[in-house]
Protein: Ornithine cyclodeaminase family protein
Organism: Parapusillimonas granuli
Amino acid sequence: MQSIDITYLNGPDIAALGITDQEILAAVEKVLDAQGRGKTVVEPRVHLVPESSDKGHFNVLRGYIEPLGVAGVKVVSDFVDNYKQGLPSEMAILNLFDPETGKPLAIVDATSITDMRTGAMTALGAKHLARKNSKVLGHIGARGTSYWNVRLLDSLFDFDEIRVHSRRPESRNAFGERLARDLGKTIKVVDDWESCVRGADIVVEASRLPEPAPLLKTEWIKPGALVMPYGTMSAVELSLTDIMSKVVVDDWSQCRKGLPFGALRAHVDSDRVTQENLHAELGQIVAGLKPGRENDEENILFWHRGLSITDIALGQAMLDKARGMGLGQTLNFARY
């Protein structure tokens, strides 16, 4: 008789790992390289909307990483008003599987993984697409992923000025205070979008809008800037892509026509962004198959929708570290 056991990593286990910024970035960059070389499978995400997209929905992400020998499925909820109940807007569970037999390997609290891997994607996008001397960051949004955006970006660029804005004053003020404490530098909390965005070298738009609204104006974008919008509902003008030298995405299959949501949804549906005029997927750039930024004058837009393989890679890295530290619980799945 064979026993199949699975490892369960809960939230406290993940916190106890003390995973470093460098470990997060390394895990995500490694899987991006594998994606660029065709060594992964990324299934387009699917959505479950229980009542209305205004209230919230679930995302289901699926993928396989050949170099790591692991497959996975993540289910993440996205409910914008959860703050009213003292809950994070996004909560997630990651399931890892043996791709040779289908045997379940682990169940991982992926709430922090979602935040970390999103921040890593933002930071790695900037590593390859922003000007090397970028010193001013403008960040719209204060949700969970926002913290890791700013933290991991600053670990690479050591900004002279970090500006943050979000719709609710209490949210943006608390966000600024947390960043100031953890990064050990002054954070400029501003009251409006323009003050946050205008003249910034790197612009991140991670707003939480109930419906599309062009709040980020194209005219505010500094020549040579990198712009990274990834809100579920678009906050950018249609003209934004008109000023871009290059448009890069994380995975075209999740950006193409016929899919809901996303910062550039209207741009794709109106053929402003197509597979033909797309510069590259980030994985192709990381793998050295396509160029990233080629000069300081380029305006570049990077749209990332969220890659299942980054969740899986970071989850696997956490699982490996947890085993070495004796963290996690062993659960019996079945006996055959």
